[in-house]
Amino acid sequence: MSGILEGKRVLITGVLMESSIAFHTARLAQEQGAEIILTAFPRPTLTERIARKLPKPTKVIELDVTNDEHLGRLAEVVGAELGSLDGVVHSIGFAPQDALGGNFLNTPFESVATAMHVSAFSLKSLTMACLPLMQNGGGSVVGLTFDAQYAWPQYDWMGPAKAALEATNRYLARDLGKQNVRSNLISAGPIGSMAAKSIPGFGELAAVWDDRAPLEWDLKDPEPAGRGVVALLSDWFPKTTGEIIHVDGGLHAIGA
Ligand code: NAD
Fold first, then answer.
1. By alpha-carbon position, which residue is closest to atom 40 of ligand 1?
2. pTM of this prediction?
3. Ligand 1 site: residues with CB under 6 angstroms?
4. Over the chain, what HEC string results?
5. Domains of the chain, with CATH numbers?
6. 155 is catalytic
7. What separation in Å is there between the alpha carbon of 107 and the centre of ligand 1?
């Protein structure tokens, strides 16, 4: 049986640890027939080590999404490897420590700016850097958010950064639709990754899921989010763009 990404070429950012949502996305994408290329931050060696645990070997290239030189040469480097792209996965988030964990009212703008640059603006920069490779009938861009409709405990300036990411997703959908490039997000429930562990008091936030999510939620399982990303990369959402699909055990639907 052929997979839902058979014949697709996909660039995947954000593989850092085995707990990374992007690692499971990469694994599932290969299982579903995609040829993938990974980008790495802060060091390719870290990502290369984790990439050895994937079903098939894959090339890893260095990419800091805030580095214009890295972005400028991305299409050429990826083009030389894969020729073209059908999909791009943005699985990137970062905020300095003083922008997280209950310090919302005192965070300096410099830290807010970093969070916005890495976590929101980068969806646009990454997409534009890859756009020259998606001229062959279009493509699918998929990012990861944490529901920005609400103020959460401890999440602080990552909240406004995710709100900016969600808006950026809609504007990309608006401006790239003519080229048949879709842009969508998976809104994931909490997962115990590196990014999550760097949020002081993350446990408090995660506990909300134990209390209220209609479907049982496993903090240690990034696979459901990865499955959502793979579905959006596939041809099974051909007319969906500017959308946010919740993979959160249904918590977003519950008021109290
Ligand atoms: P993770 O720590 O495994 O991944 C975060 C990634 O961001 C890392 O691979 C890191 O290398 C990358 N990154 C940070 N700064 C970068 C930069 N300047 N350039 C390029 N890459 C950079 O954690 P994760 O939970 O897999 O996070 C992936 C995405 O999922 C993030 O957008 C995160 O906000 C989102 N998300 C996570 C959760 C959760 O609870 N873990 C929930 C919803 C959404």
1. 190
2. 0.98
3. 13-14, 16-17, 20-22, 41, 63-66, 91-94, 118, 144-146, 188, 190-191, 193-196
4. CCCCCCCCEEEECCCCCCCCHHHHHHHHHHHCCCEEEEEECCCHHHHHHHHCCCCCCCCEEECCCCCHHHHHHHHHHHHHHHCCCCEEEECCCCCCHHHCCCCHHHCCHHHHHHHHHHHHHHHHHHHHHHHHHCCCCCEEEEEEECCCCCCCCCCCCHHHHHHHHHHHHHHHHHHHHHHCEEEEEEEECCCCCHHHHCCCCHHHHHHHHHHHCCCCCCCCCCHHHHHHHHHHHCCCCCCCCCEEEEECCCHHHCCC
5. 9-251 (3.40.50.720)
6. yes
7. 21
Q: Which atom of ligand 1 is nearest to the CA of 145?
A: 44
pLDDT in tens, 85-125: 999 999 999 999 999 999 999 999 999 999 999 999 999 99
Angstrom distance (rounded) from CA 26 to CA 13: 9
Mean pLDDT to the nearest integer, 63-85: 98
How would you list the strands of the sheet with 139-145, edge to edge? 60-62, 35-40, 9-12, 87-90, 139-145, 181-188, 243-247
Tokens encoding 206: 């995660």
Handedness of CA 1, 57, 180, 90 (dihedral sign): positive
224-234 pLDDT per residue, tens: 999 999 999 99
Largest Cα span, the chain? 55
